[in-house]
Design a protein that fits this description.
Elements: H1 39-51, H2 55-62, H3 66-84, E1 107-112, E2 115-120, H4 125-139
Length: 140
């Protein structure tokens, strides 16, 4: 009896014949294209999206994903909100959200130019900034 040869790594010789893959069809004109958009193009498309009644139809006309349009609109809103904030002269510390509540022994380690400083959670922000600036001045 002839031993059948395996033709793929998935062929386990269980008696099921291999089928040809058939024809491959590409649906839509967007498949396989990755375009690069300039800021002006993004702003123009978002503005056009805001003026139209049917975003899906607008996206099809422009040959672009609706999700991408909504992402650009959200990014534009974030940028506009950030532009309204006054500039800060001093560094800002952002609290950590989630995880376990900090214990009295929690600290961060800052390494600048080979020197390591541990800063505890009770330290004043201006003191921590002064320490880091002193380290940076000594490293340069």
């Amino acid at each position: 009896m002839d031993e059948p040869s395996l033709t793929t790594a998935l062929d386990t010789n269980i008696g099921v014949p291999l089928k040809s893959g058939g024809r491959v069809e590409v649906f839509g004109r967007l498949s396989g294209r990755r375009r690069v958009w300039t800021l002006e193009q993004k702003l123009e498309l978002v503005a056009g999206m805001e003026r139209c009644d049917n975003v899906a139809a607008f996206a099809r006309e422009q040959e672009i994903s609706t999700a991408l349009l909504y992402t650009w609109r959200r990014e534009l809103r974030y940028a506009m909100e950030a532009a309204k904030l006054p500039p800060r002269e001093e560094p800002m510390f952002v609290p950590v959200v989630g995880g376990s509540p900090p214990s009295s022994g929690d600290s961060i380690a800052v390494e600048v130019g080979g020197a390591v400083v541990r800063i505890g959670q009770a330290v004043r922000a201006d003191l921590a900034v002064a320490i880091i600036q002193a380290l940076q001045a000594g490293a340069s």
